[in-house]
Design a protein that fits this description.
This protein has seven helices and no strands. Helix 3 runs parallel beside helix 6, helix 5 packs antiparallel against helix 6 and helix 5 crosses helix 7. It is globular. It is mainly alpha-helical and 103 residues long. The relative contact order is 0.10. The protein is 72% helix and 0% strand.
Amino acid sequence: VPQSILDNVQELKTKWTYDEIVVKIKESLTLKFTRRIFVLHILTACGADSELAPEEMDSIRGVASALDLPEDQFEELLELYNQQQEVNKKLMKCLWKESNPYE
């Protein structure tokens, strides 16, 4: 673990509000350069329960906006994410033809 993280453990434990997080995101040049993959990771994390709730979508769009991600690029990422989810469903159906032991 980098020393910079170890030196800021208490700060990292702090829970920030959504607005505070957006400010930190806006200030991060690194995130601006990696904004597409960052937004894809947010979509994936929020969709881990197999659903993107309206509140989650609002928050994700807010982060994408804070990163100056153009709307057409956001929509393209969202479409690709949705396509990936459909492929994942088909894959699981194929893998568990007889029955899914986790259901």
